[in-house]
Amino acid sequence: MADLHLKNNLARSFSSKSFVEIFLTMPTALWLVLFFVIPSILIFTIAFHCADSAGGIGSEWTLETVKKVASSNYVAILWRTIWVSAAVTVICILFAVPVGYFIACANRKIRPWLLLFFVLPLWTNFLIRIFAWRLVLHPDGFLRKSLIFCGMSDEVFLLNNMGAVIAVTVYTFLPFAILPVYAAAEKFNFALLEAARDLGASRFKAFYSVFIPGIKKGIITALLIVFVPALGSYAIPDLIGGVSDELIGNKIALRAMQNRNLPEAAAYAAVLAIIIIAPIAVWFAFNRKNLRAFIKARMGGER
Amino acid sequence: MESFFKLENINKTFGTHRAVYDVSLNVNKGEVFSLLGPSGCGKTTMLRVAAGFEDPESGKVFLDGRDISSLPPNKRKINTVFQNYALFPHLNIYDNIAFGPRIAKIPEPEIEKRVKNMLELIRLEEHAFKRPDQISGGQKQRVAIARALINRPSLLLLDEPLAALDLKLRQHMLLELDRIHDEVGITFIYVTHDQTEAMSLSDRIAVMNKGRIEQIGTPAEIYESPRTKFVAEFIGDTNFFVGKVVERLDGEYCKIDLFGFGEFAFFNESKLDAGANVTISMRPEKFRVYMERPADSAASGMNLIKVKVVDIVYQGAQTNYWVVAGDKRICVRQQHSRCYLDLRQPTWNDEVWIAWHKDDANMLAGVSQNGES
Predict the structure, then answer these.
(1) Are A198 and B131 an interchain contact pair (Cβ–Cβ within 8 Å)?
(2) CA of B151 to nearest chain A CA: how many angstroms apart?
(3) What is the extent of the structural domain holding B296?
(4) CB-CB: which of B100, B130, B151 is closest to A301?
(5) 8 Å CB contact of B99 and A301
(6) Which residue in A156, A211, B269, B277 is a FRET match for A280, CA 20 to 30 A apart?
(7) What confidence tens digit (pLDDT) does each residue in A120-134 have?
(8) Are B256 and B361 in contact (CB under 8 A)?
């Protein structure tokens, strides 16, 4: 009886809710359709055309552009883009988790200041910060000179290589990783760590087996927030990287801005979009499954 | 008897706040020992020192004859039941209980056997695969106990384990805890601010106030013979009287001038001499109420005062009468062993006699001139 009652209640609240929900989400949905769905469809369709001689888009449908994108040269760049982004993401998380932990552990009064400390760089223009890095890493810069003085070989260059690209990208995205991890850590019940210690866990084991699962949602958000924009970055490899450190973003910019080959740029962008959307889709599917399992368990529990 | 668990001269300060002053206590093997006191009295700090979560500035912790003061919490054979349970939300009940044995790297079949035993002990077999947010508060409490007990600790610490439960559930869990203690026979240290919990469960109680232990004793000793004003007031209800010893009588008694009431005989536990100031604690139920002055034979060994009834609070099993003598209000409690309606009862403004036996009053130690401790 109680079960039936619950189900009825659920059904009623869902049906009355759904109308209000649709109404209230209309502006957001419109926004998404106008500025995300339609442009995406445009890009996907442009990719199936050829460029004409005037730099416009040819009127005929063709698979030529897509085939070109599949050539080994571009696959290598794509592959490099993915592993660089993955490396950047992993390094960001490795920094963000302990930083989020320590901010959440800190005295309530100094927490906002610590957060500000990590967000402060964002108040300076992105390109200016990148140029600042160029100065820092420059072959005649203070950093390299000091390192050589300390015994580093003078054959090592800090600028214009993949290491520099990864370091500066990590620097750029770190605040975006710290914020969601901190938000999750701040809600974490630290008594759980004591409980784990009490049950025999070492400090590290308690951190790893209780704190990390406890802030899982924050970590997943940080993963997406870093990985997705990192895939599309082109200013950093352009300004910090060397000739052979091009990422897919550079190719898109090159084709669209300099070569005036919009279909080819669109094809790269489409591939990138698929790479970005696929993991998010998987994540959402996983979450919905979780959600359904949760509802099922709840209703099962009532029985 | 050699004590099983010992805290020796523990001192702990947080910032400028001194939480624990030089506290020592001994707990015997197998007993339920309660730390009882108002919030902020230092009882939880003592528990955290025992568990290893707080380093005391000075003092030592002994378990089973071994100095464990420098061991971290994960190396002590002590487990804790936390106030808000602290169950791991990402693990189901089974995995929560299996957490300790898994860390100890006990083989999985053995773990399964132990978890099953524990689930049986706490009677939650059918909930093993639910998550903590899918079970009730009382069930969470039992899981927290099982998760601690499965590690077979030498000592189980319980930090206000029933504080988050409602009254009925609390009474039920109290019996449940008692049953579990009888079954596992592990030494319990139980921290609570609730005297009823402490009295019903404990073999011995330490009453704490402002970082110090005021008295250690069995529940009956603490209730019937409180040594300080704080203990008398904190455990149950009481009436305080101040007075001065007039003379020592034969044997163990003395005559005391209770200010405003005249001279009465009292049991002289502290062997006080004439001239000493005393505070006396009298439990409300120790008084007897007489409508007429009782005959001397009925009142032998009793002290009598004539009072006026000003307030009556009928509570079913008992009635509290507030009576006045001069400007002193006294609370008197009568149990109804006969049907209340059948008897003539005192009513407002009645002049009645209240009597107490000279052995039933309790003289408090460490009382200064003005009766304050």
Answers:
(1) no
(2) 8
(3) 237-363
(4) B130
(5) no
(6) A211
(7) 888 889 999 999 999
(8) no
